[in-house]
C-alpha cells in the first residue's frame, strides 16, 4: 500500500505576514498573481468563479506532480528563472516569457482567504493539499524550526481528470459578495495586456475578458502610440465619437547595459480625454489619471506619472499604458518591490524610462495645447454653447454675465461670425474676472469699450496660462520662504507647520485628491473606534508622527522631519520610523483593510553611511524596499524651485493677460 503523501512548506511567520497576509489590498491584485502563474504554466484557459463565500480558479496548464509541489510551489522564494531546467526563462510549450520571478506570489492568496485548497493533475496523477493561515501561524509559534505540512485534500473533493490546476479560496476575509463579475473583469483587463491574445483566455463566471473591458479607449480624444503593433489602439479609439487625433511616435529608449549602449523597444500608448471627470471610474473606485507600466504583459508600476513632477493643466487629462520589457531582463537583478505592483525608483532602468516618458509628455503637451486651442475656438463659435455656459453659472453670476451678453447684442455687427467671436471673448473675460473676484469691473464696461476689452482678454490659452502664472508666482514665494527658514535653522515645529500647510513642496501631486492631513497626532487617534491598547505596544501607542495624511487612492503618507543640523545613522532612522509604520499597519488591518504606506524623512544632511557611494546606494535600496525615502532639505527646495520656475519661464509671455487685468483701468465715458 502506498504510504500517505506529505506536503511540506518551510516558512517564517514574519515572511507570511509581510509577503502573504499583508501583501495585497484587493481581490483583483491577488487574482492577477494566480493568472500570472497560469500563464507561466502554459495554460490557454483560466476560469474564475466568484461566489459569496468562495473563489475558484481553474486552468488547463501543465499541472504539478507531487515533486513539483514540494520542490517548487511550496518552496517559498523558488526562483524559476535561476533554474537550469527547460522552461525556466520561457515556457516549455508556447515559449512565453515567464512572468514570475521571486516565488512569493502564491502567498498573496492568504491576504484574502484563510483556507487555500490546491488541486492539480499531471502525467495521469492527481495531487491536492489544503493550507490554513490559522494552522500555519500556530505551527510556526509552536514548532518554529520544523516545516509546515499542509493536509492532503480528500480524494472525494478532487474533480480534475485532465492536466491543469484548480485553486479554491474559502473563509474569505473580505466581503466578496460586493465584488461582481464586471468589476473583476475590468480590473484584471487593466492589469494584463496578454488576456485575449496569444491563445490565452480568462473567463470570469463564464464571460471572457477582452481588451475592451479596460474601458479606456472610448474615453480618449487624442492618442499618441508606440510600436509596430500599436495601430490596434487606433482601431479601438476609432469606434468612439470622442476620438479626433492620433499620432505614431518613435518607441525606443537608449540604455547602457553591461557597458554597452543598447536600444530597447517601448510599446503602448499615451492619450488625453475630453474632460478630467471621465477618468474617475466610480464603478470600480479607480482613478485613471495615470500612466501604468507593463512588463511582460503584466502590470509592474501602478502609475509612473506621479514620479514625473511636471506642473501643468494638461496633466489632469492624461492616461496611458507603456510596455517596457527591458525592465525585467533575465540576466539583471529584479527591480520589482515585494508587492509586485511597483518598481524600485532609483534603478537606472526605471530612471531611463521615466525620463523618456517625461520627454514624450513635453512633446504631447505642446501638441495638446495646439489641438485644444483649435477645439475651443470651434466650440465657442456656436451660440448654443454660450447659452450652455450661461446656464451652468450660479444665478447671481448668471445675471451679471447676461448683462455682458446683452451689451454685445447692442453692438452694430454685420457678420454673425464676428458676433460669435465677441461672445467668445466675453465669456473668457468674465471667467477671468470671476476668478480674480473682480466682477465689479463689469459695471465700468460700456458698449463703446466692450470690443476692445474683450479682444485683449479673449485668447483662451492666454487665460489659462494667466491663472497658472499667478499660482506659480505664489508658489515660488513659498519656496523662497522655506529656504529662509531652513537656512535660519528654524525650530522643527516651525518647518513642520509650514510643510503641513504646503504639502505640494514634497510632491506636486499631493495638493490634489487627498483627505484631510493631520499634524502632531498620535498614531491611534485616527482610529478612535478601535481599542488600540489591544493591538499596539506601549511605544507604538505613544508615538506621534509629524505629518500624516491619506490619499484618495488609499495610500497613507507619513512625513518625519529632522533638524537641519543633525547627522543621522541609517539604522537608527529605520528603527525610529518602523515604529510608526508598524503601528499604522496594525490599525489599518484592524479595520479590515490593507492599504499601502509610504514614509518620507526630511533631513538636513547626508546619512552617516552616505559618504561611500556603494553604501549610499545600498542604503537607499534597503529603504526603498520598505517604502521609505530620505529627502534632503536642499534637494527638496531645489527640485521644487526648478519644477515651478521652468514652467514660469516657458510660459512667461502668456502672463500678459494677467498683467493687463492687474494694471488695466477701464475708462468710463462721463455722463453729459
DSSP strand count: 23
- Biggest β-sheet description: 8 strands, mixed
Structural class computed from helices and strand pairing: alpha+beta
Cα radius of gyration in angstroms: 29 Å
As laid out across the biggest beta sheet, the strand order is: 5-4-3-6-2-1-7-8
Count, helices: 18
- The proportion of residues forming helix, as a percent range, comes to 25-40%
N-to-C CA distance: 119 Å
Q: What are the segments in which pLDDT stays under 50 over at least 5 consecutive residues?
A: 456-461, 650-672
Approximate strand percentage: 15-25%
Q: Look at the structure and give the mean pLDDT.
A: 77
Structural features, described:
With 672 residues, the chain is α+β, with helices and mostly antiparallel strands. Helices cover 37% and strands 19% of the residues. The protein is built from 18 helices and 23 strands. The strands form five sheets. The chain has an eight-stranded mixed beta sheet. Strands 10-9-13-18-16-17 form a six-stranded mixed beta sheet, covered by helices on one side. It has a five-stranded mixed beta sheet with strand order 19-20-21-22-23, sandwiched between helices. α9 packs antiparallel against α10 and α10 crosses α11. The protein is globular and about 100 Å long. The protein starts with 12 loop residues before the first helix and ends in a 9-residue tail after the last helix. The C terminus is likely disordered.
In brief, what are we looking at here?
The chain is α+β, with helices and mostly antiparallel strands. It has 18 helices and 23 strands. α10 crosses α11 (450-457), α12 packs antiparallel against α17 (633-650) and α12 packs across α18.
Amino acid at each position: 500500500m502506498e504510504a500517505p503523501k506529505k506536503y511540506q512548506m518551510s516558512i517564517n511567520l514574519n515572511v507570511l505576514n509581510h509577503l502573504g497576509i499583508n501583501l495585497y489590498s484587493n481581490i483583483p491584485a491577488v487574482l492577477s498573481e494566480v493568472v500570472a502563474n497560469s500563464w507561466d504554466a502554459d495554460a490557454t484557459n483560466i476560469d474564475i468563479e466568484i461566489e459569496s463565500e468562495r473563489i475558484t480558479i481553474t486552468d488547463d496548464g501543465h499541472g504539478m506532480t507531487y515533486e513539483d509541489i514540494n520542490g517548487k510551489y511550496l518552496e517559498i522564494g523558488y526562483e524559476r528563472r535561476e533554474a537550469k531546467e527547460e522552461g525556466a526563462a520561457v515556457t516549455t510549450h508556447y515559449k512565453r516569457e515567464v512572468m514570475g520571478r521571486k516565488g512569493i506570489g502564491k502567498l498573496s492568496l492568504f491576504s484574502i482567504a484563510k483556507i487555500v485548497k490546491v488541486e492539480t493533475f499531471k502525467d495521469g496523477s492527481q495531487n491536492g493539499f489544503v493550507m490554513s493561515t490559522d494552522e500555519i501561524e500556530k505551527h510556526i509559534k509552536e514548532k518554529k524550526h520544523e516545516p509546515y505540512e499542509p493536509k492532503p485534500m480528500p480524494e472525494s473533493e478532487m474533480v480534475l481528470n485532465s492536466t491543469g490546476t484548480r485553486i479554491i479560496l474559502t473563509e474569505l476575509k473580505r466581503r466578496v459578495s460586493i465584488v461582481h463579475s464586471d468589476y473583476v473583469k475590468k480590473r484584471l483587463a487593466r492589469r494584463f495586456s496578454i488576456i485575449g491574445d496569444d491563445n490565452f483566455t480568462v473567463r470570469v463566471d463564464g464571460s471572457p475578458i477582452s481588451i475592451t473591458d479596460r474601458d479606456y479607449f472610448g474615453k480618449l480624444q487624442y492618442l499618441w502610440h508606440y510600436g509596430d503593433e500599436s495601430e490596434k489602439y487606433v482601431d479601438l479609439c476609432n469606434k468612439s465619437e470622442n476620438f479626433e487625433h492620433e499620432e505614431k511616435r518613435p518607441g525606443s529608449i537608449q540604455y547602457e547595459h553591461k557597458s554597452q549602449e543598447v536600444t530597447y523597444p517601448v510599446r503602448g500608448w499615451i492619450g488625453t480625454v475630453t474632460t478630467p471627470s471621465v477618468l474617475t471610474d466610480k464603478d470600480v473606485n479607480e482613478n485613471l489619471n495615470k500612466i501604468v507600466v507593463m512588463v511582460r504583459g503584466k502590470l509592474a508600476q501602478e502609475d509612473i506619472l506621479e514620479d514625473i513632477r511636471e506642473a501643468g493643466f494638461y496633466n489632469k487629462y492624461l492616461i496611458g499604458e507603456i510596455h517596457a520589457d527591458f525592465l525585467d531582463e533575465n540576466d539583471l537583478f529584479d527591480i520589482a518591490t515585494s508587492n509586485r505592483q511597483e518598481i524600485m525608483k532609483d534603478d537606472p532602468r526605471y530612471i531611463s524610462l521615466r525620463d523618456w516618458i517625461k520627454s514624450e509628455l513635453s512633446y504631447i503637451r505642446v501638441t495638446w495645447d495646439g489641438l485644444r486651442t483649435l477645439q475651443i475656438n470651434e466650440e465657442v463659435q456656436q451660440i448654443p454653447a454660450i447659452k450652455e455656459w450661461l446656464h451652468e453659472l450660479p444665478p447671481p453670476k448668471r445675471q451679471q454675465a447676461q448683462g455682458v451678453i446683452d451689451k454685445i447684442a447692442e453692438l452694430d455687427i454685420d457678420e454673425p461670425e464676428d458676433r460669435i467671436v465677441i461672445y467668445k471673448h466675453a465669456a473668457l473675460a468674465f471667467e477671468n474676472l470671476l476668478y480674480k473676484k473682480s466682477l465689479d469691473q463689469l459695471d465700468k464696461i460700456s458698449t463703446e469699450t466692450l470690443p476692445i476689452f474683450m479682444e485683449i482678454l479673449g485668447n483662451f490659452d492666454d487665460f489659462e496660462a494667466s491663472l497658472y502664472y499667478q499660482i506659480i508666482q505664489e508658489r515660488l514665494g513659498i519656496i523662497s520662504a522655506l529656504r529662509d527658514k531652513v537656512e535660519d535653522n528654524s525650530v522643527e515645529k516651525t518647518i513642520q507647520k509650514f510643510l503641513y500647510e504646503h504639502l505640494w513642496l514634497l510632491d506636486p501631486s499631493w495638493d490634489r485628491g487627498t483627505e484631510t492631513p493631520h499634524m502632531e497626532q498620535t498614531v491611534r487617534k485616527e482610529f478612535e473606534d478601535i481599542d488600540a491598547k489591544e493591538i499596539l505596544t506601549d511605544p507604538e501607542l505613544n508615538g506621534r508622527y509629524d505629518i500624516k495624511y491619506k490619499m484618495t487612492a488609499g495610500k497613507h503618507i507619513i512625513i518625519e522631519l529632522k533638524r537641519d543640523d543633525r547627522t543621522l545613522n541609517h539604522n537608527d532612522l529605520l528603527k525610529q520610523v518602523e515604529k510608526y509604520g508598524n503601528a499604522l499597519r496594525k490599525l489599518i488591518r484592524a479595520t479590515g483593510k490593507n492599504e499601502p504606506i509610504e514614509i518620507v524623512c526630511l533631513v538636513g544632511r547626508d546619512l552617516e553611511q552616505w559618504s561611500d557611494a556603494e553604501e549610499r546606494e545600498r542604503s537607499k535600496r534597503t529603504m526603498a524596499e520598505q517604502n521609505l525615502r530620505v529627502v534632503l532639505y536642499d534637494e527638496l527646495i531645489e527640485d521644487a524651485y526648478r519644477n515651478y520656475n521652468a514652467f514660469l519661464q516657458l510660459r512667461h509671455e502668456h502672463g500678459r493677460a494677467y498683467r493687463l487685468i492687474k494694471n488695466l483701468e477701464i475708462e468710463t465715458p462721463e455722463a453729459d
